[in-house]
Design goal:
Distance between the termini: 59 Å
Largest sheet: 5 strands, parallel
Strand content: 15-25%
Number of helices: 12
Helix content: 25-40%
Shape: globular
């Protein structure tokens, strides 16, 4: 009788949405009795969940596949890069199988062929919340797949398809399971969170006998009853986004919006096929802050898009000065194979891209620094992420894990991850805060 317990390794690349895919694959593996190998050595096969959004991410994925082949030899490729099976096999002909994003059945079929399961999957129990790759106290919750936008710089729709929303009742049940398992913070992710439910015409679904519309406002309102921090990511600024700001003011969801504005120049936005009136957006941002003064607004921008002039770039800086955003990320435009923007005239020189990137980041750093200095002396709710020999490290409601700032509480060794405490800010630098505990 075969008693070898099969072990599978997994390498997860890319965005939080890909991380959710990896977690679902892990859950399926554990449900079928597979052990998860922390290293290449000893693994019966390795799954590489790839990213294929821009060329640098593609190269990272190709490198990860190559490393897994060298270190282990049995490699199953999935994820966004998997839509180009011929391209992968041309570089790495030795891979066992290739599948695209969220094709869990294809991944499991390839795993079965590489290393058959030992146990009856119906006999192996796993937690209802599944297997997570994030720390125990926070989790990404994917509410939809795909996207209906036609941005010229993006190939997400061709990789992940059109928008497909999960019914609100299903999402709420998963959130409840996460909360019951000890998760204190849920981060809602999708390609286009603001469009959630539009493909289903906002149909109602059941959650413990109560009808909940499959719409962002209704989902956020219901999640507010779960008593966990709920954070919104990748929110396209549709008009109905205004409706969730009062929920933030009421404390139902975190006062945090991650909105990828991408640019401010009307001409460049038109070339990007990004609708939206940025002057009108400035007024909306002002109103959001009037309704919820503690709101944190995070965004990302692209510099060096084909045709971007110095005048367009200066317009963007002027807009940032007016918008006074709290957190800003910036990318230098990079041609993506298959993107419509590749056919646009007047590409921007790489040195100019680099120069503009540096100018924007320094410009925003000064804005952020003023905002950070204004936090000194104030008290914030802080969720603890880790504790080391120097003290505790956490985040405020305005800080998402891994991409925003941190709060350092030196000398506090008795706290544990997931604790939510009150901290008085005593020092601030760049995007981080140093502070001390205060009584609740």
């Amino acid at each position: 009788m075969n008693t070898h317990i099969p072990k599978i390794g997994i390498v997860s690349l890319g965005c939080p949405k890909a991380l959710v895919d990896s977690e679902r694959i892990l859950t399926r593996l554990r449900a079928e009795g597979y052990e998860i190998s922390p290293s290449y050595e000893g693994a019966d096969a390795v799954i590489v969940n790839t990213c294929g959004f821009i060329d640098s991410a593609k190269q990272e994925s190709f490198d990860a596949i190559g490393e897994a082949l060298t270190e282990n030899g049995k490699v199953i490729v999935t994820g966004c890069l998997g839509v180009d099976e011929d391209g992968i096999r041309e570089v790495h002909p030795g891979v066992l199988a290739v599948s695209g994003p969220h094709q869990y059945e294809s991944v499991m079929e390839a795993v079965h062929q590489a290393s058959p399961p030992l146990h009856n999957p119906h006999m192996d129990l796993i937690p209802a919340e599944g297997i997570k790759l994030t720390p125990r106290h926070y989790a990404y919750l994917k509410i939809s797949e795909g996207c209906n936008q036609t941005c010229t710089f993006c190939i997400i729709p061709s990789m992940r398809g059109k928008l497909r929303s999960r019914p609100a009742g299903e999402v709420l049940k998963e959130a409840e399971n996460l909360a019951l398992s000890g998760v204190k913070e849920i981060l809602l992710v999708s390609q286009d969170t603001g469009a959630y439910g539009s493909d289903l015409r906002y149909e109602e679904s059941d959650f413990y006998g109560k009808s909940v519309r499959t719409k962002m406002y209704d989902l956020c309102n219901a999640l507010g009853d779960q008593k966990v921090w709920t954070r919104l990511h990748y929110v396209y600024p549709y008009p109905h986004v205004d409706d969730v700001i009062p929920l933030m003011a009421e404390g139902k969801i975190l006062p945090y919006l991650d909105i990828p504005f991408q640019h401010a120049s009307p001409r460049i936005l038109k070339l990007m096929k990004r609708p939206g009136n940025q002057i009108e957006l400035l007024e909306r941002i002002k109103k959001w802050r009037e309704i919820c003064p503690e709101i944190t607004i995070r965004s990302t921008f692209v510099v060096g898009f084909p045709g971007e002039t110095e005048e367009d770039f200066e317009y963007l800086l002027d807009w940032l000065e007016k918008a006074q955003l709290d957190r800003v990320g910036c990318f230098k435009y990079e041609a993506v194979e298959g993107a419509a923007a590749n056919d646009l005239p007047d590409p921007v020189d790489e040195d100019v891209k680099e120069q503009r990137w540096n100018r924007l980041m320094e410009f925003q750093r000064q804005i952020s620094d003023e905002k950070m200095q204004a936090k000194i002396g104030k008290v914030f709710d802080v969720i603890i992420d880790e504790v080391d020999e120097e003290g505790a490290i956490g985040r405020t409601k305005g800080d998402a894990p891994e991409i925003d700032g941190e709060v350092y509480i030196n000398g506090e060794l008795d706290l544990k991850p997931g604790d939510i405490v009150k901290v008085k800010a005593e020092h601030a630098e760049d995007y981080d805060i140093w502070g001390s505990l205060v009584d609740a």
